[in-house]
Amino acid sequence: MRIIVNIPSERMFCATKWRARAIEVNEKSEAVLKEVLQAVFLSDGVSLYNLLVTENQIMNDWILYVNGVRLPGNSGTEIRVKDNSQIHIMDNPQLVAGKSSSLG
Question: Between 20 and 30 A from 59 (CA), which of 28, 53, 97, 104?
C-alpha cells in the first residue's frame, strides 16, 4: 500500500527536510497508523513514529489529519489506514505556542 505524507508543520519540516512524500508501507490494502508511521524514515534513520508518538499515543504537540479527518487528541496508533490515503502532520497551535519542543 502507498500513503502520501504531507508536512505543513515548520517544526516537522526541519526534521524531515521534505514537504510531501509517497511512502510504500506493505503489500496489503490497509495498515494501522503505527505501521505507516514506522515506515517513514528520516535521513538520520529515525522513523516518523519516534517523533510523533509516545506510549502508543500521538503526542499533543501534533495534529494529524487522515484523509481530511482530524484525529482526536491523544489518539492511539491502531486506527486503520487504507491504500492511497493522505496524512497531514501539523503543529498543535494551542500547545506549541511558547513551548520548547524536542524538535526545536
Answer: 28
Neighbouring CB atoms inside 10 A of 26's CB total 13
According to CATH, the superfamily of the domain at 2-92 is Beta-grasp domain (3.10.20.30)
Residue-wise pLDDT for 36-88, tens only, equals: 999 998 878 899 999 999 998 999 889 999 999 999 767 889 999 999 999 99
User: Cα–Cα distances in Å, from 62 out to 24, 30, 87?
Assistant: 23, 23, 12
Residue 96 pLDDT grade (very low, low, confident, very high; cuts 50, 70, 90): low
